[in-house]
Amino acid sequence: MIDSLGGCSLLLGLISMAQDVESLYAGVKALVCVVKTDRVAQAEMDRRRAYQTLAMLLRRKKNMLNSHILHLIFSLVGTVDSASHSSTIPNIMAFQDLLCDIEVWHEAPGDLQRSLFEHLYELVAESSEKRSNLNLVRQMRLVQRLLFILPAVNSNQTRGLMLNLLGALLLAQPDQHDLLAFGQFIVSTLPGSGGGVNNTTMVSERQVALQERPSRSSQTSFDHSDMEGATDSATFIILRNRCLQLLHSLLFTSRNNVNTNFCEEVAQVLGLDWPLLFLQSQLHSTTVVWGLRVLVVLCSVPALLNKFREGVCSGGWLQDTDLVLQNRMTVVLAGCQLGASIPKREYRIETSGPPGFHQLTWLLQHHVDVSQIYFLLMALMMGQPVKLMPPESKLDLLNAWSLLFGVAANQPMSTVMSKITLVPEAVTLMLTTVRVLLYSHQKIVTSDIECDRVHYAVNIIQFLFLVYHSNPHLMPIFMGQEVLTALANTLFPATSEPPTPADEVFHSGENPKDVLEGNNPNQEASADGHPAHKFVMDFIRFIIVDSLSLPVTAKATPPLDIVLECSGDMV
After folding, report:
1. Which of 165, 126, 168 is nearest to 149 (CA)?
2. pTM of the entire structure?
3. Distance between CA 187 and CA 182 in Å, rounded?
4. Could you tell me the domains of the chain?
5. Digit-coded pLDDT (tens) for 200-259
């Protein structure tokens, strides 16, 4: 009978003419009842793609939507009981046009979108048919839709649900387009990222006060109460950190092992230079820590470590940014100025770039006062992924050792020696940070900061000596040209003439006053009295004495010659 009166168009007309909540609910309920009971009406809705019309009408009447109407839509789609054993999605077209079009429910009264996200999460993560549902939802490009409205969501609980839903969609083997969109979204939260969600000018975030609670783990249960009353800058920082935390958790399996396949996917889609974007000098220390945590896990995969070392597999995060660059005369993306006249090939994926450890060295010298980076550098040096972090306190060697290898601090060192795969470039990087700690001078340095720097420098040297002394098989690495040169160079200011090309990282054209002030005539003398100076000298002495008992080869330069060459006229 409905078909003879105009079919579903009549019912859609009733919904269109609704002026209050009651009439809108009645119109939607009538449509749902007819479509659920009449196959002809359902075929008409499918043929005419009338679910899109219904979505448009609901969007126009967004202020009249309520939970009862949303429940009717669940019934129309056929997923009203998402917890049942047969929780597949029967009406795919209605699901795509009504539930996956999340802008319909965005900013609706009563935070309806939170109920929608709970429903979607049950379908893809908790139902018995979650695998088929997950594959279907991924085809709907739901990740891009979620990211589009994520910055505009004000409810902290809703943001947490959205991140949990994003985690479920990106878990295991994600669609490359989804992973690329997620990585580019995180980049867009950086200050000055043209065309991104954070349109603030390029300012330093380092002084922004956060109410963020330190997170030891990478669990995907998020507490967003720290966003309440936060400034715009703080909100972007916290949102960025939550997204990085989510990605970090996806790098591990449910058994806390590194998810090698996912790590390789991240490297292929986003590039190994992508985590370096979050180590820039103007960024907040919490972002730097999360960016470095992601990088450490990626580099725990030997194949990816080699690619990072060689500077290959980079620039993937710039894919599909042509429109952004063409629509703006100039754009600042992640702090890198790109002109519209640049040919496409220059900002497409690069097969090779600067060596990863060279870039990391230059970036981390701006964050020497962040205590957690030293624990992460220790993990990077020994190829250990880090899922848990120690509390934000002073660096402690015993706690760091037990957290890195999961053993008690009083157990013999031999129990963990088999797990160590020393990365020489990371050792050099740690020694470079020691050099910065010894000779950096800021205009305003409090006594607490100075004490922390002394503590960091001493503990790093002690840790390296502990590794050197605990395993004779690692001694050749410390006696090598690069590592021993970096160790000897910690005794001299970085602004002096570099004895090796490796030191050119300090002479990259930047104003050295920004990082290392070399105009202080008492600088070298002040280093002589630094507590770390004695440990460095003892370390070098042990290396030289140990090398004297080894046979001399023509291929390797004797450690004594390396040290004398580094000292030069300063000996």
Report:
1. 165
2. 0.86
3. 9
4. 1-170 (1.25.10), 173-353 (no CATH), 364-570 (no CATH)
5. 555 788 888 886 555 555 554 545 555 555 577 888 999 999 999 999 999 999 888 999
